[in-house]
Every structure is written in C-alpha cells, then in structure tokens.
Design goal:
The chain has about 170 residues and is mainly β. About 10% of the residues lie in helices and about 40% in strands. It has a single domain, classed as 3 Solenoid (UDP N-Acetylglucosamine Acyltransferase, domain 1), CATH 2.160.10.10. Strands 1, 2, 4, 6, 8, 9, 11, 12, 14, 15, 17 and 18 form a twelve-stranded parallel beta sheet that branches. Strands 3-5-7-10-13-16-19-20 form an eight-stranded mixed beta sheet. The longest helix is centred in the C-terminal third of the chain and has 17 residues. The radius of gyration is 15 Å and the shape is globular. The mean pLDDT is about 100.
Length: about 170
C-alpha cells in the first residue's frame, strides 16, 4: 500500500520495487533501483524518510521517525536485512544492517559498516566508517577487512538484480 499522510505523498523512483503487501506512507522518497520487500513498513508521518539508490529493505522491516527531531536517512547501496527496525537514524552508503538489528533515534552509521544480526544500537550511537559493530548494546569490534567490504558490495547488487525478477 502506498498512501499519503496529510499533505505528503511518497515519491518513488520508477525503477524502484515496492512489494504489494508492504506499506509506504507519507513523506518518503525512494531512490533509483531501490527495493522495499514483503511485509515492510516505511512510515514517514511525523518526519521524513529518505532512501537512496540501490538500497534494499528486506522482508518485515519497520522504518519510522521521531517527530521534529530525527528523520531516517539511508544512503546508497545499503542492505537492510530481514526484520530490522530503523527509527530516527542515519545510515551512510554501502552498509549492511544484519537481520533483526535495531537502530534507535540519533544513531549514525558511517559508510561501509556491517551491523551484526540482532544488534541493538542505542540512542545517539555513532559508528565510524568501515566498522564491524555487534552486540546488545552494540559495540564496535574492529575495522572491516577488504573481503568484508567486497561482501557489502555483493549484497546490495544481489538484491538490485533480484528485484528485476518480480
């Protein structure tokens, strides 16, 4: 379902994929070749949501905002794993957010980061670029290897190609 909230209607690039049973509401922009998969909710009601190019939001994710204080801004070439909750946060380009992770208000994940499955990033957490962050509460464990950064690239590419089959 794609619907407006008050006077704001989502702006979705024509090459983006939005699954039939996902929900996109309000002040939301979805970039070129991005995808919103089955059962996900992207709700830009009390603030805005921006999703860059070639970013995939996998099944059963929730993306929301905090009124007046924290929009949600996702860069380009990001993989957001199944059942992730993003709330009033910023994720820079070429990151992977592992399945079931939770990112709360004011979190900022730098470019080329890997957030481990099930991790909880508490309000205001700042993650430096090219970091592996895991745990609950999440902590930076180390810098990513060249192989891990290549994996981030393969992940978003796989979903950019998969959407073409739907």
């Amino acid at each position: 379902m794609i619907s407006k909230f008050e006077d704001k209607f989502p702006v979705i690039h024509p090459t983006a994929f939005v699954a039939e049973n996902s929900t996109v509401i309000g002040d939301v922009e979805i970039g070129e070749d991005s995808s919103i998969w089955f059962g996900s909710v992207v709700r830009g009601d009390v603030n805005y949501i921006r999703i860059g190019e070639r970013t995939n939001i996998q099944d059963n994710c929730v993306i929301h905002v905090s009124g007046g204080t924290h929009p949600t801004v996702l860069g380009n070439e990001i993989t957001v794993g199944h059942r992730v909750l993003l709330h009033g946060c910023t994720v820079d380009d070429r990151c992977l957010i592992g399945m079931g992770a939770i990112l709360m208000d004011g979190v900022h994940v730098g470019e080329e980061c890997l957030v481990g499955a099930g991790s909880l990033l508490t309000p205001g957490t700042i993650v430096p670029p090219r970091s592996l962050v895991i745990g609950s509460p999440a902590r930076v464990k180390r810098e990513l290897t060249a192989e891990e950064i290549e994996f981030l690239d393969r992940s978003w590419r796989n979903y950019t190609e998969l959407k073409l089959r739907y």
